[in-house]
Amino acid sequence: MDAVVTTPKAEIDNACKEGEEIERHGGHWFRVFKFKPKIESGNRLYFVENGEITGYGIVFAVDPVNQFETCDVTDRMWEGKWAVRYKDWHWLDQRPRMKGFMGLRYVERLSAELKQALCG
Fold first, then answer.
1. Which partner from 19, 26, 44, 111 sits 20 to 30 angstroms from 58, CA to CA?
2. CB–CB of 51/97 below 8 Å?
3. Domains of the chain, each with CATH number or no CATH
4. Residue 27: which region, alpha, beta or left (left: phi > 0; alpha: psi -120 to 50)?
């Protein structure tokens, strides 16, 4: 199931650094959750930044973690029980407006207008 998360404003610069590193050296991103999200390999994980859905990565794994997952770029430890791992970043040409939020929202539960903008 495709989903949407928000990049907190305080983390946008780090997200850019991570993206640059992954473009240069390969690798993947991850997002941790306290619960197992209904996301599977091949689904899209969209991101809201500064009030717009900017793009998405393709999920390739959803794994249990032992309390923390560490970012290779920032060395920051993220607390959670499940890591959603994604790569193959795609920027959206049309960036639908969406207010930032905490947690995760499934695309199928968004407004008809947002679903249409994301899924066609």
1. 111
2. yes
3. 3-119 (2.30.130)
4. left
Query: % helix / strand / coil in the chain, to the nearest 5?
Result: 25, 40, 40
- The first and second tokens of residue 14, run together, are 């780090």
Say how far residue 119 (Cα) sits from the centre of its chain: 17
Query: Global pTM?
Result: 0.92
pLDDT along the chain (120 residues), means of 10: 94 88 88 95 96 96 90 86 93 95 95 91
**DSSP assigned state of 58:** E
The whole-angstrom separation of Cα 74 and Cα 61 is 21
Q: Which residues pair with 87 in a beta bridge?
A: 58
Residue 55, strand partner residues: 47, 91
Query: What are the two backbone dihedrals, phi and then psi, of residue 88, each rounded to the nearest 5 degrees?
Result: 55, 65
